[in-house]
Amino acid sequence: MQKKVVILGGGESGTGAAILAKSKGFDVFLSDRGQLNQKYIDVLDREQIPFEQGMHSESRVLESDLVIKSPGIPDTVALIVALKEKGIPVISEIEFASRYTNAKIIAITGSNGKTTTTLLTYHLLKNAGLNVGLAGNIGDSFAWQVAEKEFDYYVLEISSFQLDNIEKFHPQIAVLLNITPDHLDRYGYDFQNYINSKFNIVQNQTAEDHLIFFKDSEVIAAELSKHNIDSHQIKVSLAHKPAEGAFLHEGKLISNVANGSFEQVFDELPIKGPHNAINAMSAIAVAQLVGVSSEKISEGLKSFTNAPHRLELVEVINGVTYINDSKATNVDSVFYALGSFEKPIILIAGGVDKGNDYSQIEALVRNKVKGLVVLSKDSEKLERYFSGITPQIYITQDVQDAVNKAQQWSVSGDIVLLSPACASFDLFKNYEDRGEKFKTAVRNLTIHNN
After folding, report:
1. 114: annotated binding-site residue?
2. Which residues lie below 8 Å from residue 444, measured CB to CB, with a gap of 6+?
3. What is the dihedral of CA 426, 356, 416, 425, to 10 degrees?
4. Is residue 225's pLDDT more than 90?
């Protein structure tokens, strides 16, 4: 008798999981409480996979042998609780897909920097001619690729939400960039719950595997001391020089990994700032572990183009540089963004606060920020915290108004930085929408200036 698999959530990962489950002979049903994108409806129809939208038929879901759920569905919702009470396994798409591939898995997580590090790692491996796929929290569904393609390596960006529902997921190389308070609304406002989720990435690693981690993170160091981790540890640092690992010294990225030695002048690379030094060193260490030559690593680093909305240069207008860092949805990201510039900054921040602690950036704001524009429906917390710390604060709910005010405050040599520290859902569809609207608003200034 066919095993019944129910997929909860019909986005990219859910549709991909449905395709893989069908290809493996499962009796598949997909259920989404929202409305499916037409693109995915067409795929499910073509593959003859039954689905429902706008509801979950609870009785049908509770008859399943296995449930694969979207990362966006918390474990606390009533349906998931009911499934667990019945003893029905609930897993993530990355867990499911990993059961059906023999490819080496490189899994990258962290509160910040994981997209840049994932894209850069993928670029270094692909540029070196390796047969490599890109998936996880980015690009095409991991399960979909496992169903239809044959790769030797997968580079996966992995979120805490995806790690919450793994059992046997086993990356041969795990990268842990940092852990700072984020998504605390999902974790009962308990930072330790979030830390535990991130550390799931190493739970199935063996002595044959590798863990690359940021040595300077006090949170990671404290957590490592609590665990017996079997994998071989490789350290990345801005402050120390680990014997095996990567570090920044006199402007050079130096990586001594897998009996190889690599050096690169950081200023020659297209990505800037201390956080990107950490990201680059992590990617370099992965590349060395899988045998990429120093020449190919250097070539790949120089030809890399980062994803948009991450310290993205938009325009320079009358000597003022406009930077789109809309992906900075937590305070730690803003800390790194502010640390990336020496010139005076007009900071545009705000949105949906996820339990932010602004003390982390207080000194940087005091020393570098000449004006704060709060772009948000709920400005009170930011306004209250930074009143008296930054010389001027302006409140708005309109992105063009925010950019106009930043231009008014700025002089040649200044930086106007959109780095919100908050989620985007109060005024925008998502961080991409926020970033695109910011770029449009900046380009409107160039039209008026011409």
Report:
1. yes
2. 400, 403
3. -10
4. yes
CA distance 412 to 419: 20
317 beta partners: 320
Nearest by Cα to 51 from 79, 90, 4, 18:
18
pLDDT in tens, 65-89: 999 999 989 999 999 999 999 999 9
| Structure-token pair, residue 97 | 């897909």
- Dig out the tokens for 414 from the structure: 């200044």
Residues paired with residue 386 on neighbouring β-strands, in sequence order: none
SS3 173: strand
Q: Are 39 and 63 in contact (CB under 8 A)?
A: no
Q: pTM of the full predicted structure?
A: 0.81
Domain coordinates of the chain in residue numbers?
A: 4-91, 95-302, 312-449
Q: Pairing mode, if any, of strands 260-265 and 252-257?
A: antiparallel
**CB atoms inside a 10 Å sphere around CB 149:** 13
One fold for both 4-91 and 95-302? no
Report the C-alpha gap between 423 and 183 in whole angstroms: 10
| pLDDT for residue 449 | 66
Q: Is 317 helix (H, G, I), strand (E, B) or coil?
A: strand
364-404 residue pLDDT tens: 999 999 999 999 998 999 999 999 999 999 999 999 999 99
4-91 belongs to which homologous superfamily?
NAD(P)-binding Rossmann-like Domain (3.40.50.720)
Q: Is the pLDDT of residue 450 over 60?
A: no
Yes or no: say if 76 and 189 are a contact pair by the CB < 8 Å rule.
no
d(CA 83, CA 66): 9
CATH of domain 312-449: 3.90.190.20
**pLDDT of 115-150, one tens digit each?**
899 999 999 999 999 999 999 988 899 999 999 999
User: Is residue 196 annotated as involved in ligand binding?
Assistant: no
For 95-302, the fitting CATH number among 3.40.1190.10, 2.60.40.10, 3.40.190.290, 3.40.50.300 is 3.40.1190.10
118 among annotated binding-site residues: no
